[in-house]
């Protein structure tokens, strides 16, 4: 048998999805992988990130879980934002195996560093913003970058986030819209807040009518002399300001942020007042129509936020993105000796991940519908809030938070074998 030629893969974007995909694909000998990131260096401004059992499973597969440490000591409280009343407490398990490892809140930079450390040297090119794609039919995809350079790749992975440029080429009619939902996020030293009662002692959501506040450790205490603490404020009905409502992090003034909590409990206001001017980052939420297919041109896969523009619903988007990349790697291994290895691998990737995303969308729709029905029958804030918390905490979401992506692959593989058995 003659020598096999390498398949060239261009990954666009170095978020959790792009980095996870680079790690998984770089382990496959017949792939030649390059990741193109538009920023001049690794950049992550989004404060903390929640990682649960599904995240540990894929991070274990990528060999990156050891590097991700975060705050996990406290139980999670749900509270009324106006009077602080505790409405629910969920206790976190003290275990450390992947099966039952509880959710942690980590600095986003920790996840990023852990992934970066697992990407082999020479794969990532910074300062490479993709500006154009062309389908060369049987000869791959032509990629043009802002610096006027070009490459041709056999397979392109669009891991370029919710505002994906790659998606625009595959689905030009797909348009994002501002959801009205905006988040302000900050990490500050825990010690700044310890004098305020009940703020740093637990992870807590304080719910108001048109927004909420989230407080959480993002560090393991023993690791840092002055661990960091996250405050995220969300407002659900912000007006769109042309040119200013953007999806990436922009600095926000204290006045702008304080206005969203001015009617909340004193402890929230005190905490927000201890954030220094210039420390807040603002993120406007965007969402778009759901995609029926997350592949195109027989040589492009969309992964992570590029593939399911859900605007952070379920707080697990980084894990979804890494799972996508890992499945794509398995599919490429599986089809390597077939006549159309890339096309067939993409079909498998789509066959596994699109139904999974559909299940997530269905869950989202059902929850929204239940909430609408409840609101139609109940006008009291307390009752509506309790229903919202119950839906958030107790709906069946194991298929998300306990998802074992290696099991998904095994099941697919067994199914295939069964179907092709003579
Ligand atoms: C407020 C908020 C809170 C969230 N909380 C959580 C949470 O707790 N847990 C969780 O798992 N998820 C959370 N998410 C979702 C999570 O952040 C995303 O799902 C995740 O970052 C998606 O990863 P990604 O790699 O697909 O995209 P991104 O992280 O958006 O990365 C895309 C990368 O592509 C690069 N890029 C873009 N365009 C180009 C181009 N043209 N050329 C080259 N590079 C390009 C960008 O610079 C970026 O580095 C939250 C989201 C929001 C908005």
Automatic annotation (TrEMBL):
<keyword id="KW-0560">Oxidoreductase</keyword>
<dbReference type="InterPro" id="IPR002938">
    <property type="entry name" value="FAD-bd"/>
</dbReference>
<dbReference type="Pfam" id="PF01494">
    <property type="entry name" value="FAD_binding_3"/>
</dbReference>
<feature type="coiled-coil region">
    <location>
        <begin position="357"/>
        <end position="384"/>
    </location>
</feature>
<keyword id="KW-0274">FAD</keyword>
<keyword id="KW-0503">Monooxygenase</keyword>
<keyword id="KW-0175">Coiled coil</keyword>
<dbReference type="GO" id="GO:0044550">
    <property type="term" value="P:secondary metabolite biosynthetic process"/>
</dbReference>
<protein>
    <submittedName>
        <fullName>FAD-binding monooxygenase</fullName>
    </submittedName>
</protein>
<dbReference type="InterPro" id="IPR051104">
    <property type="entry name" value="FAD_monoxygenase"/>
</dbReference>
<dbReference type="InterPro" id="IPR036188">
    <property type="entry name" value="FAD/NAD-bd_sf"/>
</dbReference>
<dbReference type="GO" id="GO:0071949">
    <property type="term" value="F:FAD binding"/>
</dbReference>
<keyword id="KW-0285">Flavoprotein</keyword>
<dbReference type="GO" id="GO:0004497">
    <property type="term" value="F:monooxygenase activity"/>
</dbReference>
<feature type="domain" description="FAD-binding">
    <location>
        <begin position="8"/>
        <end position="332"/>
    </location>
</feature>
């Amino acid at each position: 048998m003659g020598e096999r030629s390498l398949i060239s893969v261009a990954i666009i974007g170095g978020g959790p999805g792009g980095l996870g995909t680079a790690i998984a694909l770089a382990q496959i000998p017949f792939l030649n992988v390059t990741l193109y990131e538009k920023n001049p260096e690794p950049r992550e401004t989004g404060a903390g990130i929640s990682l649960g059992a599904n995240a540990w499973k894929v991070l274990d597969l990528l060999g990156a879980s050891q590097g991700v440490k975060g705050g996990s000591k406290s139980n999670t409280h749900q509270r009324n934002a106006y009077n602080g009343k505790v409405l629910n407490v969920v206790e976190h398990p003290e275990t450390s195996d992947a099966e039952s490892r509880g959710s942690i809140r980590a600095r986003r930079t920790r996840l990023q560093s852990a992934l970066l450390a697992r990407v082999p040297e020479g794969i990532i090119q910074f300062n490479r913003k993709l500006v154009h794609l062309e389908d060369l039919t049987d000869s791959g995809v032509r990629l043009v970058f802002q610096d006027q350079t070009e490459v041709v790749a056999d397979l392109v992975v669009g891991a370029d986030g919710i505002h994906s440029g790659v998606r625009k080429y595959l689905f030009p009619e797909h348009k994002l819209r501002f959801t009205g939902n905006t988040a302000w996020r900050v990490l500050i030293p825990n010690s700044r807040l310890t004098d305020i009662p009940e703020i740093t002692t637990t992870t807590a959501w304080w719910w108001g009518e048109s927004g909420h506040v989230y407080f959480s450790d993002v560090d393991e205490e023993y690791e840092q002399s002055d661990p960091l603490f996250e405050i995220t404020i969300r407002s659900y009905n912000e007006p769109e300001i042309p040119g200013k409502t953007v999806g990436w992090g922009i600095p926000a003034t204290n006045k702008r942020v304080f206005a969203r909590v001015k009617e909340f409990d004193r402890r929230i206001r005190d905490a927000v007042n201890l954030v220094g001017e210039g420390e807040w980052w603002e993120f406007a939420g965007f969402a778009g129509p759901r995609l029926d297919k997350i592949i195109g041109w027989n040589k492009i896969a969309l992964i992570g936020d590029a593939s399911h523009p859900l605007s952070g619903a379920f707080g697990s988007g980084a894990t979804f993105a890494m799972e996508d990349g890992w499945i794509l790697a398995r599919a490429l291994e599986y089809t390597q000796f077939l006549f159309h290895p890339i096309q067939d691998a993409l079909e498998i990737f789509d066959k596994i991940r699109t139904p999974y995303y559909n299940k997530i969308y269905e869950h989202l729709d059902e929850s929204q519908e239940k909430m609408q029905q409840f609101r139609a029958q109940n006008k009291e804030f307390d009752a509506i809030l309790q229903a919202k918390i119950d839906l958030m905490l107790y709906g069946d979401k194991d298929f998300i938070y306990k998802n074992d992506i290696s099991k998904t692959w095994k099941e697919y593989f067994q199914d295939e074998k069964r179907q092709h058995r003579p």
